[in-house]
């Protein structure tokens, strides 16, 4: 069975400082991993995805994530936070044999302060 | 490019009534549709999976007679909440998986969501 654990339910950073949102996964196979962002009362937007190619994945809006198999982690980072980054972030895992079934983490709310 | 839309984007209904939520795909053949529910400040929980032309498969704890899913075509799936109650108030999101008209690869797209409030 697949699962993801988002280690922080809430992260607060100052504008211009780095962002780190942590995610650990559990999977029986070589998983696909995703990060989605959701702004208040909005749908989900794909930030980036890992599908067994390069372990460092670059996404939109300056975000990137590194797949570390030895640590079963897929942490999301951004060098410099912007006020518009304030949102809910979901780490998501998909096993290849589960007909595109996604399993969502519990989410991390990112707060960006002046 | 492919787009997945949901209608309505928000709806308020009275307790005991039924509400139908549509999920439509444009330039995209949604062979599989997933329906999720998201309660306030919580993550998305999968409710059911449907393949075009087949009956939906429901997750444990989701009442199939209460949440009716129809996926009769590759561009339309509907979720009907029957006899809605206040505890059904939630954000409902569809996710379409299939082939886009301009790509040979399987793609996936989330709908923008429908906020249901039952009074």
Describe how the helices and strands are arranged.
The complex is a heterodimer of chains A (114) and B (119).
Chain A: E1 3-6, E2 10-14, E3 19-21, E4 23-26, E5 32-38, E6 44-50, E7 56-58, E8 64-68, E9 73-78, E10 87-94, E11 102-104, E12 108-113
Parallel strand pairs in A: 2-12
Antiparallel strand pairs in A: 1-4, 3-9, 5-6, 5-10, 7-8, 8-9, 10-11, 10-12
Chain B: E1 3-7, E2 10-13, E3 19-26, E4 28-38, E5 44-51, E6 57-58, E7 67-73, E8 76-81, E9 90-100, E10 106-110, E11 114-118
Parallel strand pairs in B: 2-11
Antiparallel strand pairs in B: 1-3, 3-8, 4-5, 4-9, 5-6, 7-8, 9-10, 9-11
Q: Helix/strand-derived class of chain A?
A: mainly beta
Radius of gyration of chain B: 14 Å
User: What is the gyration radius of chain A calculated from CA atoms?
Assistant: 13 Å
Structural class of chain B: mainly beta
Q: What does this 3D model show about the protein?
A:
The complex is a heterodimer of chains A (114) and B (119). The N and C termini of chain A lie far apart (41 Å). In chain A, the strands form three sheets. In chain A, strands 2, 5, 6, 10, 11 and 12 form a six-stranded mixed sheet that branches. By secondary structure, chain A is an all-beta fold. In chain A, 0% of the residues lie in helices and 54% in strands. Chain B is mostly beta strands. Chain B contains no helices and eleven strands. In chain B, the strands form two sheets. In chain B, strands 2, 4, 5, 6, 9, 10 and 11 form a seven-stranded mixed sheet that branches. Chain B is globular, with a radius of gyration of 14 Å. The mean pLDDT of chain B is 92. Chains A and B meet through loops of A and β5, β9 and β10 of B.
């Amino acid at each position: 069975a697949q699962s993801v654990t988002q280690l922080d339910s809430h992260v607060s950073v100052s504008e211009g400082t780095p962002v780190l949102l942590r995610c650990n996964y559990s999977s029986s196979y070589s998983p696909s991993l995703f990060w989605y962002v959701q702004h208040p009362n909005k749908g989900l937007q794909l930030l980036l995805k890992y599908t067994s190619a390069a372990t460092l994945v670059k996404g939109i809006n300056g975000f990137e994530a590194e797949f570390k198999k030895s640590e079963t982690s897929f942490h999301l980072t951004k060098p410099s936070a912007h006020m518009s980054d304030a949102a809910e972030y979901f780490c998501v895992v998909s096993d290849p044999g589960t007909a595109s079934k996604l399993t969502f983490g519990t989410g991390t709310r990112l707060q960006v302060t002046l | 490019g492919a787009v997945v839309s949901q209608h309505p984007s928000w709806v308020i209904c009275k307790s005991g009534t039924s509400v139908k939520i549509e999920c439509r795909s444009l330039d995209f053949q949604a062979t599989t549709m997933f329906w999720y529910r998201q309660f306030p400040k919580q993550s998305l929980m999968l409710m059911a999976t449907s393949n075009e032309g087949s009956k939906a498969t429901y997750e444990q704890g989701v009442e199939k007679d209460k949440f009716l899913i129809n996926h009769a075509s590759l561009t339309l799936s509907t979720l009907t909440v029957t006899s809605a109650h206040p505890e059904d108030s939630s954000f409902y999101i569809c996710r379409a998986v299939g082939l886009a008209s301009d790509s040979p690869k399987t793609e996936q797209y989330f709908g923008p969501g429908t906020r249901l409030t039952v009074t």
